[in-house]
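Session log. Operator J.P. requested a structure for one protein chain; no other inputs attached. Running the standard single-chain path with token output.
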Amino acid sequence: MNSPAPANNPGNSLSAQLRQIGLRAIPAGLDDFLTRATKHRWSPHQLLEHLARAETEERSRRSMERRLRYSGIRGFKPMADFDWTWPSRIERDVIERALTLDFPQNICHAAVLAGSSVLFRSAPALLEDLHRQTPEGRRRKLRGYTNVGLLCVDEVGYLSFDDKAADLLYEVINRRYERKPVILTTNRSFKEWNEVFPNATCIVTMLDRLLHHADVTVIEGESYRVRESELESAARRKKK
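Structure written below.
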């Protein structure tokens, strides 16, 4: 007959057993949790309530961290630090209605915090990701870009693309049309997109789907990064 495992076996500890059944928050601070339960004389019902609350909060935290990693959101300036007097033209009401925004990255970050799945990709990165795939890999990638809760495509227009790239972007926009939201940033007016995607035949149809139901906001002004760099340089000169 097999004898019981020794009580001091690490694999048999209460913390290890709690981890085995999927708990994360309590095993990491088990001694403290039990001390508080003893000090406050929690009933079994209260102990379970505290355990459930701690695990729910930990799972929410881990879920948010996963969504942030998956999103690809880069470093950005919070809208609380944005100087609304900088642009020569900006539709502040549209931007504030969209949430609080570096514009798209603030929205994406807020969406992650609200529990949505988010993908933030530059247009070159997204199109390269799709272009290099095998047919089966491309179908799988398209499903990912289609089903994510919020997709942000940044910097359309900074580079020129071939007609194949236009077809791929159209496929993404078309699959999300009237199903899932898209944020897209561009430095070119839509009438100039034929220069961004020369020889492409899908531009009119893509813009038709992209702009239907859309809020379009125009920001005019000198480069915000250049402005910040000039202010930082001026501040350094003052310190000398």
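Operator note: Residues 77 and 102 are 5 Å apart (CA to CA).
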